[in-house]
Amino acid sequence: MSDINNYMLELGSQARAASREIARASTAEKNAVLLNIAHVLDSQRPELLTANKLDMEAGAAKDLDAALMDRLEITGARIDAMIESLHQVAALDDPVGAVTDLKSRPSGIQVGKMRVPLGVIGIIYESRPNVTCEAASLCLKSGNATILRGGSEAIHSNQAIAECIAIGLEQGGLSRNVVQVLDRTDREAVGKLITMPEFVDVIVPRGGKSLIERISADAKVPVIKHLDGNCHIYIDASADLEKAFTVTVNAKTQRIGTCCTLESLLVNAAIAEEILPRLSETLSAEKIELRGCEKTAEIVSGIISATEKDWETEYLAPILSIKIINDLDEAIAHINKYSSQHTESIITEDYGHAQKFLREVDSSSVMINASTRFADGFEYGLGAEIGISTDKLHARGPVGLEGLTSQKYIVLGDGHIRL
What we know:
Layout: H1 3-23, H2 27-43, H3 45-61, H4 66-72, H5 76-91, E1 99-104, E2 110-117, E3 120-125, H6 130-141, E4 145-149, H7 155-171, E5 179-181, H8 187-193, E6 202-206, H9 209-218, E7 231-235, H10 241-253, E8 262-268, H11 269-285, E9 289-292, H12 294-299, E10 304-305, H13 308-311, E11 319-325, H14 328-338, E12 343-347, H15 351-360, E13 365-368, E14 388-389, E15 397-398, E16 405-412
Parallel strand pairs: 3-4, 3-6, 4-5, 7-8, 7-12, 8-11, 9-10, 9-11, 12-13
Antiparallel strand pairs: 1-2, 2-16, 14-15
Helix pairs in contact: 1-8, 2-5, 2-7, 3-7, 5-6, 6-7, 10-11
């Protein structure tokens, strides 16, 4: 048996034991640990930044692209965001133990559902070290143990954050095995993690399409997929053009390398000549490369011709594809064909069009007059998110506390027997 195999079996066994401990922890105990971790992160800022510097230097030496380097970086503001996220998760209602749908049956028994933890959650992610903190906080609050495997490019940052989490757990009287972060990046470790149903109840992969496809194909435990974000905005003929301009620029430029960043812009032909030149000027000044259809090229000079591949691509880069659309039906058809079912938004002042868009666009988040950058667990009031599921089962959209639990039936009786 290989060292990796032994190592993963030990982690799995420890996680299973820890899952029983965290499942019976009270809300007060879990919240205290979350606040402990926040305090430790605050006190360990120099250590976190030093560890991240090692990763950033290694990333630069490997010529990682700008979007990846942005996701990799830890700054003072991002440490603040991790701390704020922990406080928000602590303030959220605890879903564990909540009883719903309690109904009396003709036999006299009462039947309802109780929300319970999933058990042990394995999370595989790339680049963003703050995911370590977000994932740990949500798993902890929802009563789950977790095994986290970050990308090799963030190994020092992830280990530094993991130590803060371990200290916070121990200060709260809980085992540090409630949250375990792999200290190695071997691909064999991932292969073992996703094939240990005796220890792991669900896998959540966060990363590129190739990672998701590999995990989905090889896993022997259920997978909650966080697929790519080919997100769209459709500017309707009735749109308020000032809103359309502001929302579009924000959706593309507020942060380039995220899964809810705008990648494809659809513009109604009736207002294309009025808004596209202004958008083009502003986006070009922001160093966004524009790729457009033939009609777009007639309005925006010097634009690169878009290909079929552009309509289906999540760039995660300063690139935006633009297509001029004749009507709402065509826009919805285009989105449902090319979208990754992540996040889409319509800019319109037509109530009927807005409602039609909400009903017929088949994505996990659908918006009216809002930037796609809001598709985020923190912005949705979830405190943080484990990922954004583009599946339809078991969770869809940003996966917060409730998405990390299941339900079991409970039956209340008083000596009742079945006749």
